[in-house]
Design brief:
This protein is α/β, with parallel strands linked by helices. About 40% of the residues lie in helices and about 10% in strands. The C terminus is likely disordered.
């Protein structure tokens, strides 16, 4: 599979952009475990053009992440074009447009999946962004606004016509949010439409190697994007790739391996963001590595309240000493309730 001139190999795996999750340290970990393409957290176009510090910081990428995409969202055409130019200047490999986020505060004002209610504006915005930047432009979206408006087949053709390099489709409508099962049948219809010649990436409910293989085999997608199933489990990319290659399921990492992973992740967060912010932004990740351990609450509280680096590493050592022999083979973290 290729996105423009970016060669990604056969059946590539993508890390979905997720707010407050896919920060640089988490992208680093997912890349280490085999993610072929990673994306930033989604970035507000309004925040970028206002020079909002939080939005500007999200533009920062590292050479080790490549290929990496910067994802932007917004509902005002001129702001989105300007934000795309700023993203382009940050020199990612891909610029992605978020037409998929279902969260009310975003979709309710016409951004994210809210753009599916105004397809002409969606298409025109995409056309102008493609013309304004040098990097390949991709789009992530959903099946439609609701069950009565599943218009992804029309949208895919129109977005292809204005020059996008690839399309990611989440197999739910905006109205579904994350309820029910993702429906891949329409994703497959888009992929197998003889008029479609850009790569189609499927997204939704892939949480194992077996599920990924099923989606590749049944729907013919070019790539798969994994979102919520990565939370507390960056090694899922290793699992999926192993299954695709061998039809065998890897055992879940031991407690000792998870401690080593958590330490590396924490070190990377501190290196990138400094002590205080690095600790705060690791809290959402740290305890998810250890879902399923018995009598873990007091230790979990230390991991999510301590601001002392030495204490955090000592607590992780304590996890290894106390639960090192515990079998976590059946423990899979609960998925996120947000992200796209």
């Amino acid at each position: 599979m290729k996105i423009a001139d970016i060669e990604l190999g056969d059946k590539p795996l993508f890390l979905a952009p997720m707010e407050d999750v896919t920060d640089p340290s988490f992208r680093y970990m997912c890349k280490k475990f085999g993610a072929d393409v990673v994306y930033t957290e989604f970035i507000s176009s309004d925040g970028l053009i206002r020079d909002a510090a939080k939005s500007l910081k999200k533009l920062q990428i590292d050479e080790a992440e490549r290929p990496v995409g910067i994802q932007i969202y917004g509902h005002i055409l001129e702001s989105m074009v300007e934000a795309a130019k700023m993203a382009d200047a940050a020199n990612p490999d891909i610029i992605d447009i978020n037409f998929g986020c279902p969260v009310k505060k975003i979709a309710g004002r016409g951004a994210g999946s809210g753009m599916m209610k105004d397809v002409p504006l969606m298409v025109e915005m995409t056309r102008q962004i493609v013309q304004a930047v040098k990097k390949p432009v991709t789009v992530k979206t959903r099946l439609g606004w609701d069950d009565d408006n599943k218009n992804i087949e029309e949208i895919a053709l129109r977005l292809q016509d204005v020059g996008i390099a690839a399309l990611t489709i989440h197999g739910r409508t905006r109205a579904q949010m994350y309820r029910g099962e993702a429906d891949w049948t329409l994703i497959g219809k888009v992929k197998n439409n003889p008029l479609i010649h850009i790569p189609i990436i499927g997204n939704g409910d892939v949480d194992s190697g077996a599920k990924a293989k099923e989606m590749f085999d049944n729907y013919g997608v070019d790539g798969i994007m994994i979102g919520r199933a990565t939370y507390g489990r960056p090694w899922i990319f290793r699992e999926v790739k192993h299954y695709l290659a061998t039809d065998e399921t890897l055992p879940q990492p031991s407690v000792l391996e998870r401690v080593a992973i958590a330490k590396e992740h924490l070190k990377k967060s501190l290196e990138i963001k400094g002590d205080y912010v690095g600790i705060l932004e690791m809290r959402r990740h740290l305890t998810n590595y250890f879902k399923g351990l018995p009598d873990f609450k007091p230790t979990r509280m230390k991991l999510v309240t301590s601001l002392d680096i030495d204490e955090l590493f000592s607590t992780l050592d304590y996890v290894a000493e106390t639960w090192g022999d515990f079998d976590l083979s059946g423990a899979v973290p609960a998925p996120l309730s947000h992200g796209i």
